[in-house]
Amino acid sequence: MNLIDARELKIHDQPGLNFEISPESDGEIEKRLEIERILQQSTDQCLDPSKLRYLAVSSFGLVTDDLRRILWPQLAGVDLALLERAPSLSELQGHPEYNQVLLDVNRSLKRFPPGIPYEQRIALQDQLTVLILRVMKKYSNLRYYQGYHDVAVTFLLVSGEEVAYAIMKQLSTTHFSECMQETMEATQRRLMFIWPIVNFENPKLFEFLQRSAVGTLFALPWYLTWFGHSLNSYKTVVRIYDYFLASPMHAPIFVTAAILLYRADEIMLEDCDMASVHCVLSKLPEDLPFEELLTISSKLYDTYSLTVIENEVEQLLHKEKEQRRLEDTIILERRKKQLNRAPFAIGKLRLSQWLPILLTPKSVIVTTAVSIVVGCCAYYYKNQYLAAGIS
Q1: Which of 110, 224, 293, 305 could cross-link with 16 by S-S, CB 3.0 to 4.6 Å?
Q2: Are 141 and 120 in contact (CB under 8 A)?
Q3: pTM of the predicted model as reported, rounded to 2 decimal places
Q4: 43 φ, ψ to 5°?
Q5: What are the angstrom distances between the C-alpha of 237 and each of 148, 212, 262?
Q6: What totals of helices (H) and strands (E) does the chain contain, helices first?
Q7: Contact status, residue 24 vs residue 32, Cβ threshold 8 Å
Q8: Assigned fold of 6-177
Q9: Which segments constitute the Rab-GAP TBC domain (predicted)?
């Protein structure tokens, strides 16, 4: 399992969100009226937690942003009576993460509604920067990662600055806690949970994906941003956030598995190599039926326990380790064979190649000069000895 440091993670720029408001379907109208009726009958618009989770998970979710402003804080466990005043941006400029956060926020212009006045957009960007840095300051043990701002901007647009901060503060210590560690090791291990689910449901697809060696990098932005980075429809993004807020923290893994299973035929039409498969997986089709996929995800979660999945992951990791050990052994044996053949190669080099190497123009000149000097010395000393009567 290749590990990626959180500081090195790069998420490429994404297309702008489509904020177009489409007419409500009959199902959406019925669901909205149901929620409004329940709110009217409730005390202080506070719903029973189990009832609220059901409304958020079931078809069409919470339907409108007006309802989400009321119900998202309840799903996240936020007490609106305890909201804190937001500091100014200048008060947070000394934070170590300031420059990186500012850079990411400035690159996220396409995640804001188009056509908003310049002053309002600048204000939203400042609020987003402050929101993120407040969480980082609150929890010094957590590490910001690229993609965190995609989550934060969604809550900011729906709930406003103070409530969005309270929600992100809560989620950063629960749903996103693994993503905010010093490295991405825990996150990448969590993404491995995709494979047992796929294998249980579609062994042929699992075998194809494993043979392609595609890994789980394609799903990393989905997991880190709750699909907020990878989807182009604002309506779809907030619908999925309804689902995740009301679901266990591992729900994105099951949604990812549901997407792979739904696209199985399309995936297996590709060439079985890493590049081809990664290319098709990393681009989510715009026409994915997410209501159906969320239903499939819930069924998968109810069917397969996390304990069973984790045991399967342990076996996969063991197989990967054994495969790497085998590959290392093969490489070592190959090197030993090369070393054993080395003396013969050196012998051949002495016979056929040493002379051309030694007899370079420079070496010939030096050898000739030394020979002349030695000859002159020998002639001189011989004459001296003869003159002295020494034979």
Answers
A1: 110
A2: no
A3: 0.80
A4: -95, 120
A5: 15, 30, 19
A6: 20, 0
A7: yes
A8: Helicase, Ruva Protein; domain 3 (1.10.8)
A9: 62-248
CB contact at 8 A, 220 and 191: yes
Give Cβ neighbours of residue 244 (< 8 Å, ≥ 6 apart): 175, 226, 251, 252
Quick one: CA dihedral 240, 243, 246, 250, positive or negative?
A: negative
Taking alpha carbons only, the member of 183, 172, 87 closest to residue 135 is 172
Q: Which residues contact 388 (CB under 8 A, 6 or more apart)?
A: none
Q: Where are the domains of the chain?
A: 6-177, 185-306, 307-340, 353-387
User: Are 144 and 105 spatial neighbours (Cβ–Cβ below 8 Å)?
Assistant: no
Q: Comparing C-alpha atoms, which of 230, 228, 229, 259 is closest to residue 244?
A: 228
211-254: pLDDT as tens digits = 999 999 999 999 999 999 999 899 999 999 999 999 999 999 99
Cα distances (Å, whole numbers) of residue 108 to 128, 152, 186, 336: 10, 11, 27, 54
Token reading at 285? 């089709």
Spacing of C-alpha 386 from chain mean position: 92
Rounded to 5 degrees, what are φ and ψ at 5?
A: -70, 140
Fold of 185-306: Cyclin A; domain 1 (1.10.472)
Burial readout 301-338 (b: 16 or more C-beta within 10 A, e: otherwise): beebeeeebeebbeebeeeeeeeeeeeeeeeeeeeeee
As beta bridge partners, residue 5 has 183
Residue 282 C-alpha from the chain's centroid? 11
d(CA 266, CA 186): 30
Instruction: For residue range 162-194, list pLDDT tens digits in order.
Output: 999 999 999 999 999 999 999 999 999 999 999
